[in-house]
Specification:
2 strands
Length: about 200
């Protein structure tokens, strides 16, 4: 430390052989003389301040970069930086895309649920239409049995009455032929054919 302080005060002659040690007072560096005078103390403090100010004012020389001297190392460091930036970009992309994927998953779940509900509604509608068709067929059969069958029976009854009335008229027409040939060619009809209901 004495050499450092001595170089800071190189232009001056030391008035004392003592060196101040941080917080412990002066240390005798030789000669065995007594403690320094207050003037020597002030000069020593001023020289210390100047040396510290000079060092603070000087900029340290930049250290030579190893990257400038070693091209493969420079390329490897550039690739490492690019990989780090790419990793950061991938992380940001993943953070940005994660909510979108969650939303897509929710949408697909909702679509699946909606399609399942639609399929259930279609099944219900199909069952309803089949039930209505069955009821319509049953109603048509009931109408046919209750309305059309008696109407047929009524028509058959009317047809039978018509045949009976026609049979009463037929004997007169058979006795009075208009034409001589008509009476001979015509064979009488069997009475069972006229009464046939069918």
């Amino acid at each position: 430390m004495a050499t450092l302080l001595g170089s800071a005060c190189a232009g001056r002659t030391a008035s004392t052989p003592f060196v101040k040690k941080g917080g412990a007072g002066f240390v005798d560096v030789g000669g065995g003389q007594s403690a320094p005078t207050p003037i020597a103390q002030a000069e020593f403090d001023r020289a210390t301040r100047e040396a510290v100010a000079k060092r603070a004012a000087e900029r340290p020389a930049p250290l030579p970069s190893i990257e400038g001297r070693d091209v493969p190392l420079r390329d490897a460091l550039a690739a490492l930086r690019a990989a780090r930036r790419l990793g950061e970009m991938a992380g940001r992309f993943e953070r940005d895309v994660r909510p979108i994927l969650a939303n897509l998953q929710k949408v697909s779940e909702e679509a699946a649920r909606a399609s399942a509900q639609a399929a259930a509604q279609i099944d219900r509608l199909d069952a309803l239409v089949a039930g209505v068709a069955r009821r319509v067929e049953e109603t048509a059969a009931a109408v046919q049995e209750t309305i059309l069958q008696p109407a047929r029976d009524g028509l058959a009854l009317l047809s039978g009455l018509k045949s009976i009335i026609a049979s009463f008229r037929e004997p007169r027409q058979a006795r009075e032929p208009r034409d001589g040939r008509e009476g001979r060619d015509k064979t009488p009809a069997a009475p069972d054919d006229e009464l046939f209901i069918g």
